[in-house]
Structure formats: C-alpha cells, structure tokens
From TrEMBL:
Pfam families: DUF212. Keywords: Membrane, Transmembrane, Transmembrane helix. Coiled coil: none annotated. The chain crosses the membrane at residues 22-44, 80-98, 144-165. This is Phosphatidic acid phosphatase type 2/haloperoxidase domain-containing protein. It comes from the Eukaryota.
Length: 166
C-alpha cells in the first residue's frame, strides 16, 4: 500500500519539475525583466503607457539576448561549462545575438525606408492606404550587450539563490 503511494507521487513529480527547472526559470525571468524595463523606459521617455512594449521586440535591452544568455549561463552553472548542453545553449545564444544585430536590425531599417516611400505615394495609388511595416525589429550592438549582461546577471543571481535555498 505504501509502495503504491510512493509510485503515484513520483509519477506526478516530473510534471511539476518544470517549475523548479533553474535554466528555464532564469530564461523566463530575464525575458520578463527586459520587457518590463522597456515598458517603463517607454513611459519615462514618452510619458505614455505602451502595453505592446511588454511583448514587442526591439529596444533596450534586448530581451532575446537576455533570454538566451540567461539560459546558457544557467545551463553552464548547473551542468558545467564543458558539457554538450552548454555548448548547444552557447551556439543558440551566439546565433540569436548575431541575428538581432544583423538580419533583424537591417529588416527594421528597410521597413523604415519602405514606410517612407509608401507615405509619399499619391493618395490614389493602390498602396497608399497599406498598413505601415513594423520598424522596431532588431537591436543595436549596445542593446544586445545590455541584454547579455542582464541575462548573465539573472542566471548568476538565480544560481546563488538556489545554493542558499538548498
């Protein structure tokens, strides 16, 4: 009887282990902190609340960089920096950070130019009424670095918390 109770409690344990997964928590927390910073920065600069900043891309700091950096650091701190899991997370981090300052940044700049062209079209032109493209897609290198620093700090802080709690 007691054995079946142990079996049932251990079988439900894997479902709840996601809530104690240190790399996942670090990554989600870093993303959330970055987005909240953007939200309040927009309010401070523009004196308006913009709820889109809580989920939107672009701006300071890079939430994508913060997320993947926190993930890689947490994996490295938890499982070691020499293991294959850290290498996978590190490569993912490198690709995301490169993409943020490369492809996405330039796509946003192209959107600016295209929006200006459409804006200058005569009113009778079929594209004159088209919706503007999103311009805030990528990040400048300082925004990506700031996201990386935030992600690293979040993971390291979380690691020390896990050591204290244990």
């Amino acid at each position: 009887m007691e054995e079946s109770a142990d079996t049932s409690s251990s079988s439900s344990s894997p479902y709840f282990s996601i809530f104690t997964n240190y790399p996942l928590i670090s990554a989600v927390l870093a993303f959330t902190i970055a987005q909240v910073i953007k939200f309040f920065t927009t309010w401070y600069k523009e004196k308006r609340w913009d709820l889109k900043r809580l989920v939107g891309s672009g701006g300071m700091p890079s939430s994508h960089s913060a997320t993947v950096t926190a993930l890689a650091m947490a994996v490295g701190l938890q499982e070691g920096f020499g293991g294959s899991h850290f290498v996978i997370a590190f490569i993912l981090t490198s690709i995301v950070m490169y993409d943020a300052t490369g492809v996405r940044l330039h796509a946003g700049r192209q959107a600016e130019v295209l929006n200006q062209i459409v804006y200058e079209l005569p009113a009778e032109h079929p594209l004159a009424e088209s919706m503007p493209l999103r311009e805030l897609l990528g990040h400048t290198p300082p925004q990506v670095v700031a996201g990386g620093v935030l992600g690293t700090a979040t993971a390291v802080f979380g690691y020390f918390i896990t050591l204290i709690v244990k």
